[in-house]
Write a structure and sequence with these properties.
- Chain A has about 375 residues and is of the alpha+beta class.
- Helix content of chain A is about 45%, strand content about 15%.
- In chain A, the strands form 2 sheets. A 5-stranded mixed β-sheet of chain A has the order 3-2-1-5-8, with no helix packed on it. Chain A has a 5-stranded mixed β-sheet with strand order 4-10-9-6-7.
- In chain A, a hairpin with a 2-residue loop joins strand 1 and strand 2.
- The N and C termini of chain A lie far apart (about 65 Å).
- Chain B is mainly α and about 525 residues long.
- A two-stranded antiparallel ribbon of chain B has the order 1-2.
- Chain B folds into 2 domains: about 1-25 and about 60-180 and about 195-215, no CATH class; about 235-505, Up-down Bundle (Cytochrome C Oxidase, Chain A).
- The longest helix of chain B has about 35 residues, at about 55-90.
- Chain B is about 65% helix and about 0% strand.
- In chain B, helix 5 (about 110-120) runs antiparallel to helix 6, helix 12 packs antiparallel against helix 14 and helix 12 (about 340-360) runs parallel beside helix 15 (about 410-435).
- Chain C has a domain at about 15-80.
- The longest helix of chain C has about 40 residues, at about 85-125.
- Chain C is mainly alpha-helical and about 325 residues long.
- The chains are: A alpha+beta (about 375), B mainly alpha (about 525), C mainly alpha (about 325).
- At the A-B interface, helix 2, helix 3, helix 4, helix 5 and strand 7 of A face helix 3, helix 8, helix 9, helix 10 and helix 11 of B.
- The structure holds heme-A (2 copies), dinuclear copper ion and copper (II) ion.
- Dinuclear copper ion (CUA) binds next to loops of chain A.
Chain lengths: ~375, ~525, ~325
Amino acid sequence: MHGAIKKALAGGVVTALATAGSVALAASGGITMDDVNMSPGVTAVGQSIYDLHMWIFWICVVIGVVVFGVMFYSIFAHRKSKGAVPAQFHESTKVEIAWTVVPFLILIGIAIPATSTLLEIYDFDDAEMDILVTGYQWKWKYEYLTEDGENVSFFSNLSTSQTEIYNAEEKNEHYLLEVDEPVVIPVNTKVRFLVTANDVIHSWWVPELAVKKDAVPGFVNETATIAQKEGIYRGQCAELCGKDHGFMPIVVKVVSQEEYAEWIEGKQAEAAQVRELMAQTFTMDELMERGKAVYQRNCLACHGANGEGGVGTAIKGSAIATGELGGHLNTGVNGVPGTAMQAFGGIINDVEMAAVITYQRNAFGNNMGDMVQPIDVFNFKKG
Amino acid sequence: MAHGPAKGISRWLFTTNHKDIGTMYLWFSFAMFILGGAFAMIIRAELFQPGMQLVEPAFFNQMTTLHGLVMVFGAIMPSFVGLANWLIPMMIGAPDMALPRMNNWSFWILPPAFLMLASTLFMEGGAPAFGWTFYAPLSTTYAAPSVTFFIFSIHVLGLSSIMGSINIIATVMNMRAPGMTYMKMPLFVWTWLITAFLLVAVMPVLAGAVTMMLMDVHFGTSFFSAAGGGDPVLFQHIFWFFGHPEVYIIILPAFGVVSQIIPAFSRKPLFGYDSMVYATAAIAFLSFIVWAHHMYTVGMPVAGELFFMYATMLIAVPTGVKVFNWITTMWRGALSFETPMLFCIGFLVLFTIGGFTGLMLSIAPADFQYHDSYFVVAHFHYVMVAGAVFSMTAAVYFWLPKWCGKMYNETMGKTHFWISFIGFNITFFPQHFVGLAGMPRRIPDYSLQFADFNMMSSIGAFIYGASQIMFLYNVIATIVAGKPVSDDKVWDGAEGLEWTVATPAPYHTFETPPTIDPAHAHS
Amino acid sequence: MTTQASTDHEKYYVPESSPLAVLATIGLVLSIFGAANFMNDLTFGEPGEASPAILYTGLFFFAATLFVWFRTTIRENIAGMASGQLKKSYVLGMFWFIFSEVMFFAAFFGALFYVRNLAGPWLAGEGEGGRMNGLLWEGFQYAWPMMTTPQEAVGGAASQLMANNGSFTSAETSMAFADAHHWYAWLPMWNTIILLSSSVTVHMAHTGLLGGDKKKFNLWLALTVVLGIVFLCLQVAEYYEAYAHFGLTLNSGIYGSTFFMLTGFHGFHVFMGMTMLAIQLYRSVRNGHFTAEDHFGFEASSWYWHFVDVVWVFLFLFVYIL
Ligand code: HEA
Ligand code: HEA
Ligand code: CUA
Ligand SMILES: [Cu+2]
């Protein structure tokens, strides 16, 4: 299958549609293959899948041409208005057998490459490194299960601003496909992703890396990839997971081995810094400032920009947020079982928890005046 | 009982007449088609451009969910049950359905069930927002309280379908006129008989699935929670054990309709009647062992993937037999292209394309890229809209003159077809492209590279939607003021017992069974 | 039962229009609307008194309509309106209804087999589907009956990595034979004996009827109903034991879930079957219904009863023994 033919055909289809009355398409111009077809991506598996996809596609095209060809021929040649007299034949065991057997053989011709590609996809062994990917409503967490990656674990949130989403600002090139912290992997390395979820089912999909695996809460699924080209590859959560299912992108940065080593070292240093922060005592202002940021990143989606509530209950004037401190801390750390309110104790670190609890108690007109320090959170968690 | 219908509302509330009940089913399903269509219009309007414009993400999910549910359970299924009610007794020479009072009950529980489902839109926390496939735990632990109402309405819909199909089975097995042997039944009756078996087999399984959900939501069980030893994926297995046969429940009666109409306008008997029957049965059988092709990415062991892939691919064989038989029926016929025939040809082309994409989806390794993308959305609208809805539309144009004794406006019918055909393709063809390029389904907003095709898709949807107004108008105008037809046989090529009764079909037909000429082949 | 060749057509009885269906709809809709509201009140804690009232009104209305419906059908039959062909429709209707019930139970049995043979071992990190699950449920060992849930294995809801979605506490004692204190205290065995014999007694009633011996019929049928009631009493006792002494509840993880789901729905079907048989008994004793030739009401109920019995045999095997 030559690229030129593919392009010509896709072009043909697109033109046919455009002439069928699409104003939009005519206006847009510049349709490339990537806009209308699957991408082979940057992995060997992706290439196999792509080839398989094109193979089935062309088989279908050929069958379609034959079947519709016959049909249109009779539409033109055997019309009553042209004086056609109907034949009366109405069965033939021979042709029935023929058109049972031939498609069956064609299917075998598809099944063979399909089987080998599937086995290729399912080959997770001899992976050089593991990354645990956990889906949360509505963000991804990455944990490096490697020796040099010990302690490296972070959340990756959508970084497109609300103003862009609500059309108050120009949308940038990577609108909805950008995150605050991409997951980084080395090039030409077999990376195994262990995919799971914390709440509902999500699905981790990066088309260019030819991986899609459902993240099922309570089960760990495996999938693997070997990226052959450095670059930034983008994907999205592919399983409906609630309100912001459309807003939990995935960004994978494939870098050289050296760059990767450097990056992971940097992450280690960052982790050490957080550990240091944990031991610090903050002022009210510091806590409020940090807390506001944490709130906007982690809580706003459910509790509203002004604590007015939404999916979650209102924080403004809430009995818990204006009640005893322990109860508030408990809600934050352990969540409310059976509701969307998750146990944030495992999601944000103790500094962030201390800050956001303080913030909730002293924002939106809540005026408790009390503070929580990281060490309080630490002690609370210990029991 | 020889007398005609009662007067006023009580005619409809208390009726036991298969034609009245059929009429109610048909109108009800059209109402649901408008409702489901309205939800689709909201979806397409929000997706007209990138960015959030009209609705909030949570509401968008409710629209997607209700659109799928209302279309599948409210529009398509009842419409074919309505058709079955009207036609099966007439086609096999029976005075009515086998169990007429239960027949009325099967219908009347539907409207309140949908009313309850629709009312969830106004409940605290909103309507169900977990997709028409309602995967746990999004539909259990993480659902809004309205899920309880959703569960009970599914129970009622299931009850209605089970009673309806028991009635059809009893009618077909027990009420055929003397001489109407199984292999003489019109194909529509055959496809419905097999559909009814599918329904009785899988609707209870769906009931079981929602019952387990109910227990997980309210009574602390852990069927779908790993923490208690259950598995969210268990839900998917049970759901798709129902869900895959369900899609053939949707398409088999459509196959039946097409098998009646194509011979009529080809003026030539259906080619390969016997093999059509066997192919239908084969599709039904296979539909029970392919369910996990919706779950290739859940993390099944590879042996499972392979089994379900091979089994799914096999369905192309009997379906192909059907397509080939239809085309051979047209071959060397004397074709004419009235509206019903146009819709059948539209069906043939577009359903086959939908079947091809189905075959592509069935290839597990490739499905890893297609799954949950708009490619899937394109696939199933090709088979369900251009498949089921087109054939249903064809059926209405085909039998309407028999039902009401008046002829629809042919020019408007043809116009309706062409606008539908073009609008449909503008809507759903580009969805293949965005799907392959990586656009996930069930998202209220998308990144910029998908903008052009989505706008195109939305424009097509409005065109297709608007063309349905023409359909509605044509049908009502025909009933109210159409040109009367008096021929028993409205179409010169039509065959079958329903064309031997007077036009319009009298309130009661075949009170004494007709005799079928043993020499006469099936119709 | 009358077997009718399909060519042998009589005048088929098509009833006049009837309000029964609409009344039944009202009853059904009130019931489910009330039930849904009731459950939501309990779970989401917005107490309301109206919902139970709606539920009970609906159920009563529904039951009353069904009563009238069946009475009408029976009267029509006695009046000779029902043709042999119509009776065959009833037979078909009952047969396919029971088939649908079989499929309803199939869903629950399917769930049981799935968790026992696939999901359970996977959670414990066994098999291709669960190689890496040790990351989440370290220390979880799979056994059936599952007496330790994955959640408990890692130290309870607070220690599990997944967000809270309930806490599941296993039973101390299972319902399996091995956990029974004395063989004679093992209720399921008694229930099996009771239910199997009730299948025999209902068959005896049938032979009595076929032989024209109404006394024999009434006696054996009464015995069947009594056996049904005893079964239900024992099941209530078993549930009481489970909750009070075994700690086995709906919350006991998947073992409790499947146990109560299967036995509960079965018990409900026993109750329905028993009620159906009791009504037939009442009809026979009070109204002298049923002859050797014409007794569909009884026959349908007895098929249902045999079906319930067969389900129990599977239940006994897969829930209690294996
Ligand atoms: C009317 C309904 C209908 C019908 C008839 C079909 C028909 C088929 N479907 Fe489709 N399907 C749906 C409705 C339907 N589907 C829906 C609603 C979903 C999505 C559900 C959801 O997730 O919400 C879905 C999703 C779906 C998936 C899951 C995709 C995913 O989520 O990743 C798959 C995968 O295998 C699939 C496969 C098939 C196949 C193989 C057929 C076959 O039956 C098609 C057979 C027909 C042909 C192949 C064409 C004619 C044949 C020939 C001309 C003969 C020669 C051909 C060859 C040898 C190639 N379908
Ligand atoms: C048989 C079933 C059926 C039918 C007929 C349709 C019909 C249509 N569907 Fe449907 N669709 C599904 C079944 C069906 N769909 C299912 C099962 C899903 C998956 C849901 C899920 O993910 O859970 C889905 C999902 C789905 C999506 C994806 C949503 C998402 O993933 O977020 C979209 C998006 O374009 C869409 C569009 C349409 C459109 C435009 C039509 C049109 O054909 C509708 C046309 C009809 C009308 C418009 C009504 C009648 C017209 C009038 C009353 C005139 C007035 C109208 C105007 C003036 C415009 N559907
Ligand atoms: Cu996470 Cu969709
Ligand atoms: Cu399917």
